[in-house]
# Entry
Amino acid sequence: MIGAGNMARAMIEGWVRADPARASSIIATDRGSGKAEALAERLGIVAVATNEELVERADIVVLCVKPIDVERVLRSVGSLITPAKALASVAAGVPTVTMESILDDDVPVFRLMPNVGVQVCSGTVCFASGRFAHTAAADRVTEWMRLLGAVVPLMERQFDAATALSGSGPAFIGLIVEAFEDAGIVAGLSHVAARELILSTMLGTVQLLQEHELSCSDLRRMVTSPGGTAATGLAALERGGVRGAIIDGVLAAMRRAAELG
Ligand SMILES: NC(=O)c1ccc[n+]([C@@H]2O[C@H](COP(=O)([O-])OP(=O)(O)OC[C@H]3O[C@@H](n4cnc5c(N)ncnc54)[C@H](OP(=O)(O)O)[C@@H]3O)[C@@H](O)[C@H]2O)c1
# Structure
């Protein structure tokens, strides 16, 4: 892990939670903040002083620096990344072709878009392969990523949409959960009860949708009887423009991802 900031920490916490024995196989660096060493002390991973040492020791190099730092880091250690290794980058908006053009050799390069759920092994990791990627390297990278949650293969041109939906998604869903908490309080529940009710309702709904492969409209029909409470509530939500606001929010995030890339 080149970089030991927020995303690197979330991924490392996920790996150590999923398989504590892997901690000693994870090596991290930073730019001088001491975050890699702090992770080493807390989680039992290995912190090294230089990116050169990290690249020499690692068989998968994961770039966890800000997009603006990708080129500088790759120019300094790119020559050490041989085709026998794999390079995986989580940097938003940096295409595999940009990284391949900086590297000397035909290195298997992968672009990833994880979200914060990786910290609790329930993340979503979008995954795309570069020009020189091959099955063995892809298997090696995805084997690690699967420990962090769902690995979703996408074409690179879909990454801005994925960034909006699953990358920014936890922030959007956090807003919705908060709105339900507020609604529960207005309706007379304590904050604790409102939070417990909405989180458990969300979990159950997700499980139903996944296990029974229900469509959302089938699910809505299951709980919406004519003239009942859900029907009345849904009509008010639609009048309030919830669906349109969510579509607008995701499209705005997607446009922003394209601007930043
Ligand atoms: N946060 C998210 O939810 C999220 C989601 C998907 C993708 N991402 C991507 O994840 C990447 C990292 O984001 P972040 O939020 O984790 O950023 P961050 O907290 O600022 O962490 C960046 C890390 O990179 C390190 N770094 C910078 N230059 C370096 C160098 N030359 N050598 C070694 N380490 C270096 C920094 O070191 P210091 O600690 O010494 O400053 C820091 O630890 C970004 O590209 C972002 O697009 C983030």
